[in-house]
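hey m, so remember when u said the tokens were messed up on ur end? i reran from scratch. heres the input so u can diff it against urs
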Amino acid sequence: MRMSSRAALAAATLSCATVLAACGSGTTGDSGSDGDLSVVASTNVWGSIAQAVAGDRIEVESLISEPNADPHSYEASPLDAAAISDASLVVFNGGGYDHFVDDILESIGDDVPTVEAFALFESGEHSDLHSGHDHGTSNDTSATEAPAQDAHDDSAHDHDGHDHGGINEHLWYDLATADAVAHAVAEQLAALDPDGAQVYRDNAAAFHESLHGISDVTTRIADTHTDAPIAQTETIGHYLVLSAGLDDVTPTDFTNAIENGTDPSPASIAETRQLLLDKRVGVLLYNPQTEDKVSREMRSAAESSGIPVVEVFETLPEGVDYIQWQTRTAESLAAGLDSAS
């Protein structure tokens, strides 16, 4: 996994002191000077999920929102620290992905309420998206009672895929975790704003229902393309691949190097290129936000062989919300595999 420089993060964190002193440090449940609740998300992916729950009652602020931004190299600013410090609720990925949030929370020393996707993922308390629509709108719905789990994602919580091992931090492609985050946000907001509790829980239930449309697509892929070989320039779509029942046959040395921010070996580059030139995979999953000479070369090899390229992102493309984005990605994957059959 490629993280921003810890030195840069430390500098940004230290420079926050002046800003925090000027604007004041938030406390648990502090709603800011204007009396409104403030929800801050590390990226607009988690911001979109939080906004779906908050609805019209709260405007969610996403610290990373540029469609072409690369969160791996993001450097936190003093204004980011101020936003987190004054937040009523902070929603972030965790697991080392957006470490600047952890750094800021630690530096301000406040007990700011948070929803961390990785912690919910680690809990493993996920139900099956296809076991029934059982969330409803009950006031008893809790943050951990009914997060959704894709029927074909049973191995997701073992934290490894096609021999790549380790923990994959790109949790927004795991529908179960997205659902768990939505319900956790609903419960946190219900505690902060009891008058809106039912609205937040209803919105989380509606978000859950919307996830079924995405899961239906990945289920169809799993049914029609079981164990179909695919390749990735970077394992961002790890959980999408798992839920669709596909087999990532990209050389481990290649993807490990990309994840660690190092140059793949010439041998792994050649092996990956040949995999594409020989048309031994149905699609190539490609991250255009972190493209470099090597990844562009892989895309060219795929396109020259007529292999469909499915783009996967780390932030929301402009003009879409989380559900629209994930639906579009799943449908693109399905279309690519159908055309390769």
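this time it looks ok to me. DSSP finds 13 helices and ten strands in the chain. if urs says something different then somethings off w ur setup not the seq
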